[in-house]
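hi! just following up on the protien thing from before. the input was this:
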Amino acid sequence: MSGNRADAEHARELAALRVQLDEAEQTLQAIRSGEVDALIVDDAIYTLDSANAVSNRLRSDVLAQMKDAVVAVDLGGRLIFLNAAAECQYGLAASAALGHPLEMLYRVRWYSDDDRAHAERELRETGSWRGASMHVRGDGVELHAESTVTALRDASGAAIGRLIVSRDVSERYHAAASLQAAMRELARSQREFSTLVENSPFIFARFDRALRHSYVSPQVEKVTGVPPDFFVGKTHAETGMPAKLCEEWDALLERAFQTGQVGEARFSFTTPTGEALCFETRLVPEIAADGSVGSVLSVANDVTEREVADTERRAAAEALREADRRKDVFIATLAHELRNPLAPIGNA
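and the predicted 3d structure came back as:
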C-alpha cells in the first residue's frame, strides 16, 4: 500500500511540475512577443523594461512596419528578435527562429578579408559598423546586403547583444555590376574606335544636335594644318569654314538628325597652303538609347587624286572626240577638193 501511495504522490508532483513548466513556457513566449510588461513574484513586481508599456508597444509597432530587416541577437549569438521584414527577407518565421543561432537565419560571406577585419575592428572599437556583405540564407539563397550592426545594451548600459538592420540590395548590386560591365564594354569599343579612326586615312568627325564637333580624328591636321582639338565644341562657322560651305554642311547634318537616314555629299576644300582638295563624305546617324538620333558621324574620304584622274580622263576623252571631229572635217574637205580635179580624169 505504501508503495502505491508513493507512486501516486510522485505522479501528482510530476503533474504539478508539468503545469508549472507549461506556465513558464507561456510566460516566456509572452515576454518574447512583448505582451508582458512586468512580472509579479509573491509581493514583488519586476518590470521588464524601464519604459512604459505604451512605449514598448509603439516601439514594436514601428519595428514591425519597417521595410528593413531588423534582427537582434544575444551575447551568445542566439536570435531574440525578428521583425516582419526580416522574416520575409530571410524566408523564416520568427516562431521557428527565435532562440536559435543567427546562422539558422543567414551566414555572412565577406567580399574580402579586409572587409571582415574592418567590420570586426569597428565593432570592437566603436560598437557599431556599417557596410556591405553577402548574406547566405538557410535555404542557400544569396543576398547582397547593406547592414548596420550596433551593440545592444540594457538600461544600465551593459552589452546584452547586437542589433542588426539590413537591406537586400541584390537588385541594385546586379544593376551596378551590369552598368560596370557595360561601361567596360563601352570603353573597349571606344578604344577600338579610336584605334580604327586614328589609323584610317579617312577623316572622322562626330557632331552633336547643336551641330558642334564633339570629336575629330587626327587626320584633319594633315589637311587643315590645325590640330583636332581646335574643332571640338565648335560649329563649322566657328571654325572659319566659308559661309556657302557651312550652309551646305548644316543642311546635310540637319537632314540626318531629322530623318535618321545615311546621307552622302561631295565638297571641295582649299587648304591654308592654297591646295584645292575634293572630298566625299558619308553622314551616319548614331541612335541614342531612347531611339532618337543622338549624334551624326561624318566619314570623309580625300578623292582629290581620283577627281584629278577623272578630270584628266574626261579631258583626254574630249580631246579624242575633238580629234575625231577634226579628222572627219579634214576627210570631208579633202574629198570635196579632190572631186573636181578628178572628174575629167575619170571621164577620160
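The longest strand covers residues 142-153.
The two ends are 184 Å apart (CA to CA).
cheers
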